[in-house]
Structures are given as C-alpha cells and as structure tokens.
Design brief:
about 210 residues; alpha/beta; Rossmann fold; 9 helices; 5 strands; about 55% helix; about 10% strand; binds adenosine-5'-triphosphate; binds ligand L45E5XJ5; cytoplasm; kinase
C-alpha cells in the first residue's frame, strides 16, 4: 500500500506520515528532507541556492546518510529548500530515489508537496493535509521554542506564507492536492484527532478498493 501525504509547510504532514507508517508497519520517507539537504550542501559549497548547476551537483551527490542532521529541521533550512526545489533539474534528480522508496514490497508512506501528483500518482491513498496559516505558525513556534530557538510568531508566519507562495506558484510540480486526494483540515484537530481522521480516510479508501 502506497500512502501519499502532501500539504503546506507545518501542516502536520510529517507527524501524520510517521504515525500512519508506524500503525501499518510501513517505511516512511520525509521527502522535504531531501530538498533541505540539497540546499544545505549548496550553501556549504559557497554557492547560491538558486544556482542550477550547483544545486544539480548537490542533488546528484546527495549523501542520504546525512538526512538525520537536526539542523535540517530549522525554518531557515526550509526556506533555502524551497529555493532549490524550484529548479526542475533538482526535482528530476531526486525523483527516482523517491519512486524506488515507494516501490518497496509492501509499500511505503511518503510526505511532501508533489507525492500524490508527480512522485506517486498511482498511490493507493492520497491525503492533502491543511490547517490555517496562523495555526501552523503557532505549532511551529512551539516546536522552535522547545528546541531553544529564539524566534517570533510574526517571523514564523511570514516564513510559512513565503514558502507556501513559492511552493504553489512554481511551474514544475507545484504544491497542490491531487484530483483524487482526500482533504484533511487539522486546524481544529489535535495530533491524536488528526491521526484518527486519517486512519478513517485510509480504511475507507482501502475498503473501496477491496469492494
Ligand atoms: N494536529 C496537530 N495539532 C497540534 N500540533 C500538531 C498537529 N500536527 C502536527 N503538530 C505539530 O506541528 C508541528 C509541525 O508538524 P510537522 O513537522 O509534522 O509538519 P510538516 O507539515 O511535516 O512540516 P514541514 O512541511 O515544515 O516539514 C510539529 O511541532 C508537530 O508536533
Ligand atoms: N515533495 C517535496 C517536498 C519538499 N519540497 C520542498 O522542500 C521544502 C521543505 O520541505 P518540508 O516538507 O520539509 O517543509 C518545501 O518548502 C518545498 O519547497 C518539495 O518541493 N517537494
């Protein structure tokens, strides 16, 4: 079973993807980490993140062992990631890894922006997770403060809105729900309630396929 989870920044995709993967004992890939790591490597090599040649070289040479770097989780790393993610050659270079991950026997859960539309258009289940920008900023703020980062709500909200705009306006694989995705607005749902709602959607979808 392949489960595609997409949605805007800090909507809770990753949290849901990990919970769903654990529930169905499936491997899970946070595809945003790939773009974050490419951006980190471009900047570390002293190039601009928008430099297509440097970004393509970084994508081709990506060390997948380096994805657990906690620095990749910061808002600054997400902002840089959304710049390299606009480069079509970078997206193409990361595609086969994501598709191979999804093609594992038994399936997988992947979360990102274009999983249901481009990476796994044949996914068995597609969920597009949303929440209002203010709710997302509040969640991200709490997460950053817990990590000891010195950030403001206004700064995080601006970062989220900028990233949403970049991700949804790019020509190549823009962020948007697949035509056959189920929408899940978690603005008024805590993590547990969002998980329960997602499990309900998945069971309904699997039931429909089996019928
Ligand atoms: N339904 C929810 N209610 C409250 N907090 C939530 C909920 N879902 C996720 N969170 C919290 O919100 C923050 C963002 O969640 P998460 O990292 O899963 O989002 P994301 O969409 O994967 O983010 P990004 O796109 O930036 O990687 C985390 O601190 C997470 O614990
Ligand atoms: N499938 C994807 C996943 C991510 N991106 C880009 O990476 C940025 C960081 O992603 P997070 O999920 O970790 O927030 C994101 O803003 C996108 O620009 C992508 O394009 N496609």
């Amino acid at each position: 079973m392949i489960i595609a989870i997409d949605g805007p920044a800090a909507s809770g995709k990753g949290t849901l993807a990990r919970r769903i993967a654990a529930h169905w004992a499936l491997p899970c890939l946070d595809t945003g980490l790939l773009y974050r790591a490419v951006a980190r490597d471009v900047v570390a090599a002293s190039f601009r993140p928008a430099d297509p040649w440097a970004a393509l070289a970084a994508a081709r040479g990506l060390d997948l062992a380096g994805l657990s770097d906690p620095d990749l989780r910061t808002p600054a790393a997400g902002d840089l990631a959304s710049i390299v993610a606009r480069i079509p050659q970078v997206r193409a270079a990361l595609l086969s890894y994501q598709r191979n991950f999804a093609a594992q026997p038994g399936g997988a859960v992947l979360d990102g922006r274009d999983i249901g539309t481009v990476v796994c258009p044949e996914a068995d289940v597609k969920i597009y997770v949303t929440a209002s920008a203010e709710v997302r900023a509040d969640r991200r703020l709490r997460e950053c403060l817990a990590r000891g980062e010195n950030v403001s709500f206004e700064h995080i909200l601006a970062d989220i809105l900028r990233r949403d705009e970049r991700d949804s306006s790019r020509d190549n694989a823009p962020m948007r729900p697949a035509h056959d995705a189920d929408l899940l607005d978690t603005s008024d749902l805590d993590i547990e309630a969002a998980f329960d709602a997602a499990v309900g959607l998945i069971k309904r979808k699997i039931g429909q396929q089996g019928a």
